[in-house]
């Protein structure tokens, strides 16, 4: 992977981790917290690869000076990842929230959810543009984990596949609906009309 | 400020810092790097306030246990901010980029820019919805600094004021145009037709 793409990947991973980590805390979401842990492992692996490649590539003091910047960038990415992991750990171990925290979680109708697309799900083999999930369910896909790769900020052309892990943000109602759609328990036609009208 | 709003502010600041810090590196932008430094100071101030408030609020061991989580969250935010600052410092001190870095910056027509709205600028006292900067210049406002406050992810209803500091992402051409629009050196009517057509 070129350095440019490496840097862009690090940026995307860092941004997603920060979003997911705070969302995990705000919504007390173990799902989001677990995805942060997965991402942190990937950042560590990436950092390790960068160190190896830089050591092999350095042929002179001049080379070394220039590659040092890359190592420093990777270190910063790892620090961010560790901090995000600290937030995720709070949620996974189950922190005892001050009463004010509880109010935060209970008063909001917002939520973050993680679903896996089953083979039988109508979501599989359709693009986000075709599915119009935001319009129909109020849920927005913020990232997709496919095997060990991530798709950041998916758009209307992004096609969903069976076994994709989706992270979505929206409302409680929408989250429950998405879980059913993803598992194949219900289809797009089943979406209650009241919900669709509410979203309009 | 309630804990909920405090957490949301920390989340917004962390996300913006990570975006700006990586963008500063990718585009070798001292402007973006300087804004990261400003934000890092604010995170430090916020962390200090949280520590003070938590110490005053704790009346029992039970209280203390619950407020500990808040202190840990603030510590994580500060770690993220420090890592972002490390990236910004690379750009400000001027790192000697490996030839591959140079290619990244030169081949891309993308850029990040910071402008201050002059009293004489047409941008002042208009909403982003009215100005349609994305359509007309290809530049998107990602954040606005107004005095010591930040507006994150502004939308079409956000009104711009004189002395606002805007951070925008887009193309080189668009960035130059925005600097002229912000300083009052040119007006919206002056935008070259070729640029508008290109953006359509």
TrEMBL record, chains A, B:
SUPFAM superfamilies: PhoU-like, TrkA C-terminal domain-like. GO terms for biological process: potassium ion transport. InterPro entries: AAE_transporter, PhoU-like_sf, PhoU_dom, RCK_C, RCK_C_sf. It comes from Methanobrevibacter gottschalkii DSM 11977. Signal peptide: none annotated. PANTHER family: K(+)_H(+) ANTIPORTER SUBUNIT KHTT. It comes from the Archaea. GO terms for molecular function: monoatomic cation transmembrane transporter activity. Residues 100-184 form the RCK C-terminal domain. This is Uncharacterized protein with PhoU and TrkA domain.
């Amino acid at each position: 992977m070129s350095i440019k793409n490496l840097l862009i990947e690090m940026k995307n991973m860092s941004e997603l981790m920060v979003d997911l980590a705070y969302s995990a805390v705000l919504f007390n979401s173990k799902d989001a917290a677990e995805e942060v842990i997965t991402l942190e492992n990937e950042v560590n692996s990436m950092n390790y690869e960068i160190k190896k490649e830089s050591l092999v590539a350095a042929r002179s003091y001049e080379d070394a000076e220039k590659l040092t910047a890359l190592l420093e960038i990777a270190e910063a990415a790892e620090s961010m990842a560790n901090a995000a992991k600290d937030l995720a750990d709070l949620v996974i171990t189950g922190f005892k929230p001050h009463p004010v925290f509880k109010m935060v979680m209970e008063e909001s109708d917002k939520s973050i959810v993680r679903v896996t697309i089953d083979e039988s799900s109508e979501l599989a083999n359709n693009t986000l543009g075709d599915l119009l999930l935001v319009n129909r369910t109020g849920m927005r896909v913020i990232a997709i984990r496919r095997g060990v790769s991530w798709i950041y900020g998916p758009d209307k052309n992004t096609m969903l596949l069976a076994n994709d892990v989706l992270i979505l943000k929206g409302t409680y109602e929408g989250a429950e609906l998405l879980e059913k759609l993803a598992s194949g328990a219900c289809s797009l036609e089943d979406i209650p009309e009241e919900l669709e009208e509410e979203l309009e």
